[in-house]
Amino acid sequence: MPIIACGINHKTAALDLREQAVFSLDKLALYLSDLLSYDFVREAVILSTCNRSEVYCDADDVEQIIDWFCLQHHLTRDQIEPALYVYRDEEAVQHIMQVACGLDSMILGETQILGQMKDAFSESCASGAVGGLFNRLFQQVFAVAKEVRSNTAIGACPVSVASAAVGLAKQIVTSFNQAAALVIGAGDTVDLVIRHLKAHAIQKIIIINRSFENAKVLAKKHDIEAMIFSDLAKALETVDIVISATSSTSPVVTHKLMSNVMKKRQNKFIAMIDIAVPRDIESAVAELENVSLQCIDDLKRIIQHNLKGREHAAEKARDVIQQKSRDFIAWLSSLDIVSLTIRKYRNQIEDISRLEMIKATKQLERGEDPILVLTNFAYAFTNKLLHSPSVQLRQAGVEGRLDVLQFAQQLFAISESELT
Length: 420
What we know:
Order of helices and strands: EHHEEHHEHHHHEHEHEHEHEEHHHH
CATH architecture of the largest domain: 2-Layer Sandwich
Strand order of the largest sheet: 7-6-5-8-9-10
Shape: elongated
CATH topology of the largest domain: Beta Polymerase, domain 2
Strand content: 5-15%
Radius of gyration: 31 Å
Low-confidence stretches: none
Helix content: 40-55%
Largest sheet: 6 strands, parallel
Structural class: alpha/beta
Oligomer: single chain
CATH superfamily of the largest domain: Glutamyl-tRNA reductase, N-terminal domain
Number of domains: 3
């Protein structure tokens, strides 16, 4: 049962490439269906966030998984392979656990990734892409993430992309408390952005989303203003800060739109922070006068400042993960041994049965009494079937190995009452 994890992330791939390799969340079921249509894939989970696109699968052919990854995003191997990592078996399990614990995130120890992984797992379950192996694997992954959160300081003073974005905005914009902010989107990240903006006592927050109903839900939750998407230009004309985090596959704010907005603003300074992948704001917007445009990769200097003191906790978490991944692979290997043992034992029984059947058939052909033949067959088969276990049990009794005897009782489903 080879476990494979392959993909790209913020460490290996530039933003331009990560934008091209996104698995659209609304199409995950289609991706999974297509992946499982291949005979060499048995189970799969796809995780796609702003900082990573990864495929986890129980599959036999790594090269074909890579080919499939390239095909979904219309990328060549030459384009993807310099940034692509592939892990197998124990390394794959270890990687998945590290991702779930936030150890592989841009922000060390961030918690949002665990929720994203749980969502990815749920989507795979709903799509019929998860069987016994991955169900056991991901339950173990989630248990390890909980243990790491509880027993290490990795989650102390939690930092997220949302909090880093607000921190960056606060550095860029003077008189932050008097500023007005526009958030674009209505997902979990935007929810966190709004929380952090309010925590910093910003003067005004407006939310815009393609689905006005979703925007209204967050607006009511946080007591802020919601505007319809067609009023995006109007909103941009009135705010000092824009933080965008939608799941759109194409830019929400174009150079043309922002150029017209800046004329209406009379080129008043605006800070724009785009934490979406693919990007919500065209990179050319940065060329406009008095526009400060930052993308998710620009958050690193804010993030690094918040990582002091976490490395020791991260090392402790990695030790836990290393042991847990070894334990999981040991359990998985034990399944192979169990299967092999059962198969060998079945073969032994079938060999005994076949030999006794040949003997009984010859006796019947000679005209011997069928009842006597069947009686002899049953007696001989039973004796030969029980010979080896009986020898081993007697030897265990002589050696005083009660553990073997107790296990035999369990194996043969013999209750204590039957021994008295």
